[in-house]
Amino acid sequence: MSMTPEQFVEAIGTGNIIHNSGDLFGDHLRAVQRVLKEWGEDEELQLAGLFHSIYGTEGFQDFQLSFDRRGDIKKLIGQRAEFCAFCNCVMDRTALDATLSDGPGKHSIHARPDVAGGAHIPLTDSQFSDLITVHLADWLEQVQREAAKVNERHGWMKPGDAWGYRRQAYRSMAEMLGGKALECYESVFAHETEQTKHISQDFTPKLAAPVVPKIYVQ
Which domain of life is it from (predicted)? Predict the structure, then answer.
């Protein structure tokens, strides 16, 4: 019998990897899927949330499913969901932040040189909306846990520093999406104290070597 997407995520070992936020990687993936369900997003986008960092991202590289498996993932969750997850994984996040101010029909990102040679990736308006929805849900699901601790690999040297990570970009995404996404953003960031609201980190630091070896699942 074929696996469900949820069973696949478990079978490839995500329950054995610690995510940046301190939770197990698999638990974080399922939590992002739940956030999108709570926002009323359709099943395809919920599945994009479940797979949002399956190939590794600029901010999390301790687990990387081989790109050779993209065809399998498309069959499992659909082309729309897989493309969204793929973009979230390979993109240079500064490119996403830069295109937030572009008008309809003009959105694009580029991949990081280390994973896809810096390839230019044009996005339709619906693909852009999908990407910022999943990307925002990912951060809102974990930022409180990140902000409660130190993460030297990301340059967050004291508790609270994580609140400032790409602060304006995430705020812009929430305002663009509105509705449940904006409500969630405001609810999460209501937990930030005045002492950290001046912090702003507009870049994603180059990650140091992982504490444990990366896992590339074929």
Answer: Eukaryota
Domain that holds residue 159: 5-217
The residue type found at 112 is R
Sign of the torsion formed by the C-alpha atoms of 40, 45, 48 and 52: negative
Q: Indicate the pairing of strand 120-122 with strand 108-110.
A: antiparallel
β-partners of residue 165 are 201
pLDDT in tens, 9-49: 999 999 888 888 778 999 999 999 999 999 999 999 999 99
Which tokens in the block code for residue 113?
Answer: 């040189």
Q: Is 203 exposed, middle or buried (0-12, 13-18, 19+ CB in 10 A)?
A: exposed
3 state DSSP class of 137: helix
Which ranges of 5-124 would DSSP assign to H, the alpha helix?
Answer: 5-11, 25-38, 43-50, 70-77, 79-90, 93-99, 113-116
Q: Do residues 146 and 20 make contact, with C-beta atoms less than 8 angstroms apart? A: yes
Three-state SS for 63?
strand
Is the pTM value of this prediction over 0.85?
A: yes
Contacts 24+ apart (CB under 8 A), 151-160: 151/20, 152/208, 153/20, 153/205, 153/207, 153/208, 154/20, 154/59, 154/204, 154/205, 154/207, 155/201, 155/205, 160/192, 160/193, 160/195, 160/196, 160/199
Radius of gyration of the chain, Cα coordinates, nearest whole angstrom? 16
The two structure tokens encoding residue 185: 């953003």
